[in-house]
Amino acid sequence: MTADRTVDTAPWHKTACILCENNCGLLIQLDDRRFAKIRGDKEHVASAGYTCNKALRLDHYQNGGVRLDTPLRREPDGTFTEIDWDTAISEIAKRLTEVRNRYGGDKIFYYGGGGQGNHLGGAYSGALRRAVGARYRSSALAQEKTGEGWVDAHLTGGHTTGDFEHAEVSIFLGKNPWQSHGVPRARTVLQQIAKDPARSMIVLDPVRTETADLADFHLRVRPGTDAWCLSAILAVIVQDDLVDHAFLAEHTTDSAAVLCALSGIDVPAFAEICGVPEELVRATAHRIGTATSVATYEDLGVQQSPNSTLISYLNKLLWLLTGNFAKRGGMHPHSWMAPLAGYSRDIKRTPVTGAPILGGMVPCNSIAEEILTDHPDRFRAMIIESANPAHSLADSAKFRQALEALDLVVVLDVALTETARRADYVLPAASQFEKWEATFFNLEFPHNTFHLRAPVLDPLPGTLPEPEIYARLLRELGTVSGGKLAVLRAAAKLGRRPYKWAFAALLAADRSLAGVAPYVLYETLGPTLPDGARSAAVLWALSQRIAKVYPAAMRRAGHRDAAALFDAILAGRSGVTFTIDDYADAWDYLPHPGKRIPLAIPELLHAVRELATTPAVHTTSEFPFILAAGERRAFTANTIFRDATWRHRDPDGSLRLNPDDAAHLGLATGDRARITTSRGTAVSTVEINDRMQPGHAALPNGLGLDLPDGDGTRRTGVAANELTDVTWRDAIAGTPWHKHVPARIEPLQDA
Ligand SMILES: Nc1nc2c(c(=O)[nH]1)N[C@H]1C(S)=C(S)[C@@H](COP(=O)(O)OP(=O)(O)OC[C@H]3O[C@@H](n4cnc5c(=O)[nH]c(N)nc54)[C@H](O)[C@@H]3O)O[C@H]1N2
Ligand SMILES: Nc1nc2c(c(=O)[nH]1)N[C@H]1C(S)=C(S)[C@@H](COP(=O)(O)OP(=O)(O)OC[C@H]3O[C@@H](n4cnc5c(=O)[nH]c(N)nc54)[C@H](O)[C@@H]3O)O[C@H]1N2
Ligand code: SF4
Ligand SMILES: [Mo]
């Protein structure tokens, strides 16, 4: 018998998974600082106990990699010196000020602001941007979702989400939810659909994925030809009159132009181009056109392939022409805790190359081009938080060159990443289990949830949560006078109601404070919050916003007012439902006059008409394969794990090849092959896989990290973006074609 507190009697800490946008609720039992046991949290408002295989490996994030535990400054000889926080903050504030004074604050570029599990820090970054006059920013959204967002801005005015739990027909377009999730409790939901004879699943994917295995209709398109496939399906819907004319008449405008463009499409010719049997195209169209409800999810397979913005439009026409909006099992706009991006039809332009800024984001593929020039308006400094762009952006070599060309690079991260290694200053963040955290991936309808996670552990000594890092920089910059902060601090001590009045009065008197409001909240309300939840201060303002914008939906979720909602968020260790929408609310979320959806997007209708003569093949004799550079698999998780041992299977992340291609090249599973593209070359282990179609090869995403090994580093697997090209991108949104990289594959004779 022992009196020691063993793991079995240790408490379970409530938190959430940080590996994908679903952020499933977790319970973690600690053994000192190690995650001894992890299981799903059955009380969690969104996931109800569900997790996938990856969550159970999270100790490899918390304890597997090499953590930063002191700020670093890069010296002229390229080495890093450890410095203390005060030195780091004062030097960075001084150098940001120098850049602003010399070139203008708009030359300070901000990248990131949150990964799959951490957005709370980013909520404070806007205050720093405002303080230094930064205007341009970007994040990974601008290499996947900005084209879709622009289409949404035209049609429904904002993001829509699919009700896959109830949809009669579920469509996954370049999306493999079995591996990548995105749909809450994805594997359970997919299996339920597959088991129910009354419901159907339609999958468009060149690969026979695990999701496609469960589908009733697998449209195995040739890579990069979804625009033809979707146009053909839509043409059948129009030509066979499966259109919901009553919905179009009552709820939309300009439908005639859309129906006209689609009615002229040559279905057999388009089916031929996309490689899907015409009968399957027709059967799919009839299944969609006769269903009581249809929900769709488009993701990277089409968003990172040719014609991506056009495809987003065609996808949305599928459910709009058939009237599957704002009803059970259909597509819905939803409430937000805080929108992830802006939605605007207007396209602003970057200062140097005139690249399109959609949703407030500079296209990722244009960032290096904006910097690597002698144009006077080029960016001079970059602040990077919770992102690893030197690994995740197209053409890593070019991005590294761009980082070297800047006067100042500041990186906030938990680890010395490929990006951090090129920074002038690296600031060590507390991990996502060592601080108050949350994400704004609150995209559900009708029950929308938010989860403020409490820390599971104290911060590793030497690290700080991002809100504190931003606050220290803002204090150093003297952004808000001590007097103003003192007034609010005094009000906060009296209670949240007096605080609310004082805050409103101060903002009314000094509008300039609005831009730095998160910082002001952090400094004044923050210290009064329970259990050190200072970083939650910004959620007080977001609760006020919810109460103002969605009062009825908030009350349906059981919150009397903003104050009650904020209390529920602070107390809700398994998350809270912050709104319950009803179907009629969907129409209120439409920003357009008359609450009608304008269906015609002239540029994209033009693109539909041009499709018959648009090139559908991008291979050449030099590059005869199409490489999907960055597939989601059972053991990939962006670059969140910096410990290769978390991967149980396929440790090197193999290049997947069709058996016929492998035979032709003389390759067997386990052999090594050289992959060459217009931008680079890499060597990979090969896996023969009959899920791939001939001519199509795939590499996993997130591999090829340079991990510490003795005195140097060692790379496992291929860093996909050593092979990608920044010019290979969508004409409208500037988003990359990572899933469609022409490549050559050659066997490599091992010594
Ligand atoms: N396991 C795991 N899950 C993740 C992540 C992870 O790293 N690992 N990352 C998360 C992130 S950041 C994101 S954005 C999501 C992405 O989630 P997904 O978009 O589902 O992920 P991918 O595997 O990149 O691409 C989806 C599918 O597109 C297919 N595809 C390739 N080319 C084409 C094409 O031309 N047409 C069509 N129709 N399909 C094509 C691929 O075969 C693949 O099955 O996953 C999230 N979830
Ligand atoms: N070729 C190719 N490129 C791709 C893709 C692809 O499919 N193919 N996918 C793209 C997509 S969809 C995405 S979303 C991006 C993802 O790429 P990025 O947006 O660059 O993000 P992650 O790889 O998720 O890296 C997150 C970073 O956050 C750090 N981090 C973890 N926890 C914390 C914390 O608490 N605080 C701070 N400050 N940092 C932390 C990690 O160490 C890591 O450096 O990659 C894109 N790039
Ligand atoms: S589905 Fe996503 S959030 Fe849930 S356990 Fe898996 S990786 Fe984590
Ligand atoms: Mo992503």
From TrEMBL:
Listed SUPFAM superfamilies: ADC-like, Formate dehydrogenase/DMSO reductase, domains 1-3
Stored PROSITE patterns: 4FE4S_MOW_BIS_MGD, MOLYBDOPTERIN_PROK_2
Alphabetical UniProt keywords: 4Fe-4S, Iron, Iron-sulfur, Metal-binding, Oxidoreductase
InterPro entries the UniProt entry points to: Asp_de-COase-like_dom_sf, MoPterin_dinucl-bd_dom, Mopterin_OxRdtase, Mopterin_OxRdtase_4Fe-4S_dom, Mopterin_OxRdtase_prok_CS, Prok_molybdopt-oxidoreductase
GO cellular component, one term: membrane
Domain annotation 4Fe-4S Mo/W bis-MGD-type: ranges: 10-66
SMART domains recorded: Molybdop_Fe4S4
A GO MF term: 4 iron, 4 sulfur cluster binding
Gene3D superfamilies linked to this entry: 2.40.40.20, 3.40.50.740, ADC-like domains, Dimethylsulfoxide Reductase, domain 2, Formate dehydrogenase/DMSO reductase
UniProt protein name: Anaerobic selenocysteine-containing dehydrogenase
Organism whose genome encodes this protein: Nocardia tenerifensis
